[in-house]
Write a structure and sequence with these properties.
single chain, mainly alpha, 2 domains
Length: 231
Amino acid sequence: MEHFLYDKDVQCPLCRNKFKTKKVRTRFLKVVKRDDDFCVTYKDINPIYYHIFTCPECGYSSSESEFNNLSKIGKEILEKSIRGKWSKRDFGGIRGHREAEEVYKLAILNGQLMKKPKGYIGGLCLKLAWIYREQNDKREFAFLKYALDLLEDAYQNERFPIASLDEVNLAYLIGELSRRLGDPKKSVVWYSKALDNPDIRRHRLLQIRAREQWSLAREQYKSHKEMKQNA
């Protein structure tokens, strides 16, 4: 496992502690499959296990892209709510699904305390749902629902990109999450929103997938409707 990883030197913006955390060497990644909600399964190692940086000294946790984006108010909040209650733990080594689950929950908590954008927190919830999916853990669906609610709110109220997605991809994702959570009627609306966006022409593969999922959701909705009528 070690040869898939390398050490990254990091300095915590909250407590100024310097520590090392593992990162995945992307050249070793081999895709096994891609799910319709953008979850990717890799052969040997899951890179999302290492997307979160967690300071072992104070417990500050965030995605790599947001780690240094810590405001003065954010520092004050975390000093009171996280650092003062933290028992020192080091997540800088090889992570299994339990360590990955813990750092994502820490990052979600940190994000909520600092009132980070809902799109950011929704993206973390989605990745945690994928980690649960990998383990066939039913908690996947709870976190898919959290992700759906947060990303739908962000779509309406926040600037793009949201969770690293443009408007077309996010509309499609909201449709797919709605379908997976048993609401095909709602998913048809969101797939259509993606397909009706002029920018879909720049996303040919997504356009094909959205059409396929729109047809699937439409059939599921028809089936659900018939079952209710015959009940």
